[in-house]
Amino acid sequence: MEGVLISILRTLLSFILLILVTLIIGKHINSHKTHYSFALSITIGSLIANMGFNTHLHFTEMFGSFMALVISFYLLLITTSQSRKVRRWISGTPTVMIEKGKVLEHNMKKMKFTLDDLNQQMREKGVFDISEVEYALLEVSGQISVKKKDSFQHVTKMDLQLSDPTSTPLPIELIMNGKIIKKNLTPKFSEAWLNKECRYRGLSLREIYYGVVSSDGTLFIDLFHDHNHSPIDIE
Questions:
Q1: Contact, 136 vs 122, CB < 8 A?
Q2: Comparing C-alpha atoms, which of 116, 212, 224 is closest to residue 172?
Q3: What are 183-217's pLDDT values in tens digits?
Q4: pLDDT 10s digits, 24-69
Q5: Is 81:92 a contact under the CB 8 Å cutoff?
Q6: Torsional sign, CA 179, 211, 26, 66
Q7: CA-based nearest residue to 170, from 130, 141, 212, 209
Q8: What's the rounded Cα separation, in Å, for the pair 134 and 99?
Q9: Percent helix, strand and coil across the chain, each rounded to 5?
Q10: What whole-number distance in Å separates Cα of residue 103 and Cα of residue 230?
């Protein structure tokens, strides 16, 4: 029984520790955009698993190893942010796969990248015809970045001289789970305005699952009970 309690305690402490660390450097770990962030995520997973479940290893020793790894990674982040030379050495650089519409076979072979791999990743980017591509780069993350030829680029508002000098505001979340998000209230979208909108629609706050002011200034409301008797996806 004592061993079970120790195992549970170790697991909880390890989980809490992992949460605290990911709050600090979680975006770098989750992105897997560089070699060392990928290696770190695997190593952290292994250490946390041993800290939580391997009772044959001392928790304090594993904790020391874990903190040494995290501190080393944090120092490496600081170093790479200040030195482009170190950053290129640690993170690597993109590899050009297509240049001026021509496939670079030498780079493809060097990266052990086949034409099937290239075509698959381009299809995932919405490009089904390789003749449309001007440049294609294999990023450090393993993903392909594609620049189409000018004749295949999407038409923009600027091309049509329809650009709007005013920026579109972000949506503002005002209600979530039946409660007002007070920190998001503004003089224009105040609590009084929100209550007025709810009364106008014959709704109370406890009926509203989600309420957000859209970019055009209108209030979108989703209810807890939508009265949708035939949902498309039923598990």
A1: yes
A2: 212
A3: 999 999 999 999 999 999 999 988 999 999 998 88
A4: 776 666 655 666 777 777 888 888 888 887 878 888 888 888 888 8
A5: no
A6: positive
A7: 212
A8: 6
A9: 50, 15, 35
A10: 50
